Every structure is written in C-alpha cells, then in structure tokens.
Amino acid sequence: MHIQGSHWSTAIAASSDGNGGRSTPLRVDAQRNLEHVLRAAREVFGELGYGAPMEDVARRARVGVGTVYRRFPSKDVLVRRIAEEETARLTDQARAALGQENEPWSALSRFLRTSVASGAGRLLPPQVLRVGVDVEAEEARVPHQRQPGSGGQPELRLVDQRTAVQDERDDAGVAALLDVVGQLVERARSAGQLRADVTVADVLLVIATAAPSLPDAAQQAAASARLLDILLDGLRSRPTA
C-alpha cells in the first residue's frame, strides 16, 4: 500500500462509508479503527445476536463508542453492513459449491459444512430467516408503514432516500442468496437425494441452527460438526421399501 504524506492511505476506495454511499479515502488510523470495529461487531453479534448494544462492540474493538458512531451513525447501519457482508459471503460459498461439485448432494452438503464452519449462521440477516413467512399477514399485524401522528391519527412515515437505497441493496443481496441456494436445493431434490419437502428456508435454518455460540472454540467446532451431521442425515431422502 502506498501512503501519500503521513496521514492518508490511497487504497481505501473499496471501503463502504457505512451508509451505502460512495467511499472516500480514510486516514490510516481511521481505516484501522474501522477494521477493528467491523471485526468486533462480527464477534459480538455472532456471540450475542444483533440485539447486542453498540457499547459492547466499542469495548471489543478497544475504541470509544463515539468512534463507532462516527462511522456508523446508528446501530441499524452497522447491523446492515455486517448482514450485507455475511449475505455476500454465503452467496459466494453457495456458488463455489454449485460450480465445483458435480454431484448434487455433495454440492449441498459442502455448502452447508462450509457455511456452518465459518460461523455464518450466527450472522444471518433476519429477513433471510423469514423466508416462507406470510409477509402480507405479517404487515397486516404490524403495519410498519404507518405510525401515530398528532391526535392519534395514523400518518405516512417518510423514508430517508439513503434508507430506501440500502433496502434495495439488501433485497438484491438476499435475492441472490436465495436464488443460488434454491439451485442447490432443486438439484439435490431432482436427483432424489434430498427429501421432497425440504425447502430453501429449511436449508438456511440448518445453517442458523448448527452454529451454536460456545465459549470454547474447539468445543464449538466439535458441537457444530456433530449437529450438522445429524441435520444432514435428516435432510437426505430415504429409499422406499
């Protein structure tokens, strides 16, 4: 990496600004802090879930919470960043399995083993795990498009343009993941190697279920591998008598 002067790095263009906007060069120390925050966020959210407070992320990154908020003005922005990266990583893993394994069951099981071993299940975006949920019924129950206005009357909530753009990016990333995992599922099902009732949602649930968060890394890896073996056995089709 070439450094111009004593403060600025010229190779940070690929780094997101945390709001889905165009990147700008960061000071070397600022880039280092950003990397620490992202690494800490993955660890904290992986262990405690996306409900963990920003203060926990700051402590793990060994920076002040103000540093975190300078890069990510709200927790939702940080969660979206981590979820977006994990969605892209899962999609890459699924594509690799699809392209490098000719045998359908081997491709599906490779994807599941790789994803579980990477701990991706602990960072799956919430909307991915809602695959198969009746969205219309959910929205009727929780009408998030409206909120009480003055006098108790509902009013339309204005949507920030950057939020709308990020929503589109999130949706596109999730759609790409669902598409490639769907191909893995369909191939294995058509080959008679996967139970006919298994869906994409079931496969993603396996990734989430087989990634327990345990304090000891070796114990966690062993537990994940054992649990995944059991779940894979349950996914396979059985010859009829």
Description:
- This protein is mainly alpha-helical and 241 residues long.
- It has helices at residues 28-48, 54-61, 65-71, 75-100, 104-117, 135-141, 161-190, 200-209, 217-235, and strands at 3-4, 8-9, 146-148, 154-156.
- The chain has a two-stranded antiparallel ribbon with strand order 1-2.
- The longest helix is centred in the C-terminal third of the chain and has 30 residues, at 161-190.
Total beta strand runs: 4
* Main structural class: mainly alpha
Tell me the strand order in the biggest sheet.
Answer: 1-2
Low-confidence stretches: 1-16, 133-165
Q: Describe the oligomeric state of these chains in a short phrase.
A: single chain
- The helicity comes to 55-70%
Task: Report the portion of residues in β strands.
Answer: under 5%
The residue-averaged pLDDT reads 77
Order of helices and strands: EEHHHHHHEEHHH
Report the principal-axis shape: elongated
Count of separate DSSP helical elements: 9
**Alpha-carbon Rg, integer:** 21 Å
- What distance separates the N and C termini? 64 Å
Strand count, sense and barrel status of the largest sheet are: 2 strands, antiparallel
